[in-house]
Queue: 3 jobs
Job 1
Amino acid sequence: MIFYFSATGNGKYIAETIAAATGDGIVNIADCVQANQYDFALKKEEAVGFVVPVYFVGIPMIAVEFLQKLKVAAARDCYSYAVLNCGGTAGNAAHILRRAFPVNAVFGIEMVSNYVPSYPMESAAEITECLENAEHEIGTIVRHIQSRDAGSFNAVKGRFHRLTTFVGYPLYQHGRKTNKFTVSDACVGCGLCERICPRKAIRIMGGKPAWTIPQCEFCLGCLHRCPAAAINYGKKSAKNGRYVNPNTKL
């Protein structure tokens, strides 16, 4: 069983690819949190995996909440692993995850960076190259999982990983302010942003989205997946492009 959290499709693609090789099912963490579902039973010798993105060199709060509450019933002690996907470095995100739910193995993989509030999207050629490299890395991860290898296989944690997370992660924990989201006149009022928000922070009011709580998950799924590219965060995102993983369906 593979639990994943994904806003733009990177994590879902990883989970689906691993599942195709291992025969496991995949479960959306956001769906579980919204349904208050934390109890699961595994089949005999089934592994439990987690695929989560790296936010500000930590992991999303929704993933922390889920991992802390998760209860897994297994016929025997199960093998567990986590795959951290990031656009740059993972920092000490593995420590945050293991503190919430101890796992036997941690893997790191670089995916397409899409933090457009600060940086422009890479070119189409660079995105294609990144996804091709990721496919190779996922294959290596699958072999480790099938062999039930334990340990740290996180080559993307970067230098000074403890320090970067110590400095960067609180910016996410105490930030995530929804008052910086804006909506342009291009909005068609389709309601997709409201439906996909993992924290149900968005409501369509007067034909346009409005953020009803001061903090959200800051996954930026609403921004990237808006069909009219009408949602922005801060002053730079409007010109920095949008991204959805082309190898999966959201």
Job 2
Amino acid sequence: MNDQEQHAGDAGDEELSPAEALEDLLEEVTDGLGLDASIEIDERDGVLTGRVEASDAGLFIGRHGQTIDAVQHLAQRIVFPEGPSPVRVVIDANGYRERRAETLRGEADDAADDALGSGKPVELAPMPAAERRIVHEYLRERGGVETHSEGDEPERHLVVSPLPG
């Protein structure tokens, strides 16, 4: 066995913590995209968060968040390869997740206002499960309307209906 093979074998024996595995993955992805990025990992309240800061984070986020959502999905599976974990992995870039949540809350308010004004259900555009959850939780707190999901992925969407009464 040559030196390279020996070192490769050593690396396979080393067990990375979930935080280390996530940091390695994000470094690999940002390097692959040619981004000069800083990466920060934070773990609290059952959420392992990887934050990427980069001047061209749009490449990492992708159109309608498709790239960052795909990286997040892969990260969950790579960081916890043994299967479902009570710890959820969240990937963010340049504060994208909070900006997107604000946009979703605005769309949710508009849909709720329309549903209450017309007395009829209002369908929102298809969105990933994590975004549907944000809208469900936000409108549950707001009150006056109820929500449910319809359709199959990737066309699954929320329906906002006025509460009977």
Job 3
Amino acid sequence: MATLLNHALRAARSTPAPAERAATLLVAGAGGPLGSAVLEHVLATQRFAGVRVLVTQALQTSVKGLETLIVAPFDAGNGAAQATPIRPALADTALVVFDVKRHANGREEAFLRPEPRTLPRLAGWLRDGGVRDLVVVMPHNAASLPQALKAGLADLDEHAVVELGFEHVVFVRSARAAIGLRSDQWLQRVADGVLAQLR
């Protein structure tokens, strides 16, 4: 009993360890249905000290802890549009969401919509801005995507992104197969039908 009391008194006298600085987050692609849901969840949890969102035009927001950062659209080719010059420490973690376009109230047009072909350039800009951890979120329902976005995700250069030197890089994909996707080949459709019956 005396030992427990000694430990408690010693703990009460000891100075607390300095608090670790709360991390900050930067979100690219918050205008679509998936991106806006992710941003809403991040803001609701209040896990981050500050949340920045990339926009291509001025956007007024009164949400506590949310800051906008205006950038020019990224382009993968030569002669590309230049992004906004990097300010010191963009964020600790960046979240890039590839998503379909949404027209709920018109404000979505202000958010940057990253394209898969521009990911290496965007990731390089984020890394130069001090981002240590990168999370790339793929759409959860590939069948609902426009053909151009499907093709872009199929050609995504993940290796080029990983080689940029982030501490952590995470690619988030759906674990289930796309539902309702029909093959163009009649033989494959027959095989899919037989397998569906067996299931």
